[in-house]
Design goal:
The complex is a heterodimer of chains A (235) and B (221). With 235 residues, chain A is α/β, with parallel strands linked by helices. Chain A contains eight helices and ten strands. By secondary structure, chain B is mostly helical. The chains are: A alpha/beta (235), B mainly alpha (221).
Chain lengths: 235, 221
């Protein structure tokens, strides 16, 4: 049996003496899509930031693709595509310039072709030459997704990727996640929408009080059942 | 991607953003000009006291204008969450520091290029000699190397506008003294002056090395 692609063991994190994560244990195999559910402040964003090498863990170990995220952070960064709460784009640069810049940062080959292809895929080809500051929230979120996928990451970390997206954008997100999984990519995302949680994932993980309170494969689950489990788990 | 290409890519991005937003250059330039004009009218300049006052006025303008720009370069990254994005990239943290430093030097340099002729006219001093270039370069490097590091520290706090001068001023005193005295000796040559350029260069090397090494730890959470 092969080792899991993402392996979290006893992960703890404290901010100013306040424990946010109190010992997270979780594994995710290559090609799997897992949704993180939890109330505001449950530690979802902190967990994603640790996995993205933006925040150092307080205790415990995390391995991504067999690499330790603290000791081999620079290598791990190549493997990760991250969409956070902030768009993390430059308002003064155009959509294409943003992708070209980040593509260079990740040493993407044929970066222009790749950027143009992704802009077409997320429906922003016609706005490629417009500054990000002039785009709508949904368009910025689409561009953030394109930026996260630019270097063909093995692990996608998405913090509420559905925020600000219209129906068409949600369909696009579903398509992007499916394509990523088909290429063998692994995905970990958060959402507050139970329907999308079930539809877009293979596994559900609920956080409560900084701990994993529920973990289950999604197959056979209905959104209503997930909501009930969520309410019971967080009671 | 090689280290120099990482530096150039970040620098290119910063320059392009600044050329479009014009937030830093305009405020820095106006501030420097304002200081020079006020000093020109505030002091009763005569031939015998010009060398004592003019270099100080020039470097006060440069130092304060620099701090305006230094505070903004990394703060704008933090405000829009882009520092996260830069930190997420597999780039050497020293490349980020060096790019920010070069960007700051460029912004300050443009302000200096605009302010120097105005200073020469207002204070009626013949400053356009080849010897002024190393003084300005070394002085700017000293201010920018410390300022870039401490702007990263200050940007992570709520009171960054207040904190940056408090942190930076004490540390740049040696380089500012060196720059003022070296500029003064250009106007009135003196044989008893210490080698200010050498002292400034030594200061720059020490603080540039320390800042490059520390930047990674400052910028990471």
């Amino acid at each position: 049996m092969s080792a899991p692609y993402l392996e979290i063991k006893g992960l703890k994190k404290t901010y100013s003496l306040k424990p946010i994560l109190r010992g997270i244990d979780c594994v995710l195999d290559q090609g799997e899509r897992m949704v993180l559910l939890g109330a505001n402040g449950a530690g979802k964003t902190t967990l994603l930031r640790i996995l993205a090498c933006l925040t150092k863990p307080g205790a415990g170990t995390v391995r991504i693709g067999g690499l330790d995220i603290v000791r081999e952070a620079q290598h791990v960064r190549h493997l990760i595509g991250f969409v956070g709460h902030q768009p993390n784009l430059y308002d003064e640069l155009t959509a294409l310039e943003n992708l070209l810049f980040f593509g260079r940062m990740y040493s993407v080959r044929q970066v222009r072709e790749q950027a143009v292809k992704l802009l077409q895929q997320v429906g922003l080809a016609r706005r490629a030459g417009e500054r990000v500051g002039t785009l709508s929230r949904g368009q910025i979120q689409r561009l953030s997704l394109a930026r996260a996928l630019l270097h063909s990451p093995r692990l996608l970390l998405l913090d509420e990727p559905d925020a600000g997206l219209d129906d068409e954008g949600i369909e696009l997100l579903e398509e992007l996640l499916r394509e990523h999984a088909e290429r063998g990519g692994t995905t970990l995302f958060t959402t507050h929408n139970f329907e999308r949680a079930v539809k877009f994932s293979d596994k559900i993980c609920m956080l409560g009080g900084g701990r994993v309170v529920y973990q289950q494969a999604t197959s056979g689950l209905e959104p209503v059942g997930v909501r009930q489990a969520y309410q019971e788990a967080l009671r | 991607m090689t280290f120099p290409s990482q530096v150039l890519a970040i620098l290119w991005k910063d320059i392009r953003c600044e050329l479009r937003s014009k937030q830093t250059w305009i405020s820095m330039g106006l501030f420097a000009l304002l200081v020079l004009v006020i000093f020109n009218f505030a002091f009763d300049l005569r031939v015998d006291n010009k060398a004592a006052i003019a270099p100080g006025a020039l470097w006060v303008a440069f130092v304060f204008a620099s701090l305006l720009g230094l505070g903004r370069t990394i703060a704008t990254e933090q405000e829009k969450g882009s520092m996260d994005r830069l930190m997420l990239c597999p780039v050497d943290r020293k490349a980020i520091y060096l790019a920010k430093l070069l960007g700051n030097m460029l912004f300050i340099g443009v302000v200096e290029i605009v302010a120097l002729p105005i200073f020469a006219v207002l204070f009626n001093v013949p400053l356009f000699t080849g010897e002024l270039l190393p003084i300005v370069l070394l002085g700017t490097l000293g201010i920018a190397s410390i300022g870039t590091l401490f702007s990263a520290i200050a940007a992570a706090t709520q009171a960054r506008e207040m904190l940056l001068p408090i942190l930076v001023f004490p540390l740049i005193i040696p380089v500012v003294i060196g720059a003022v005295r070296a500029t003064g000796t250009l106007m009135v040559p003196s044989i008893n002056e210490p080698p200010w350029l050498g002292l400034m260069a030594a200061f720059d090397v020490i603080f540039l090395s320390i800042s490059m090494l520390m930047f990674e730890y400052v910028i990471e959470e």
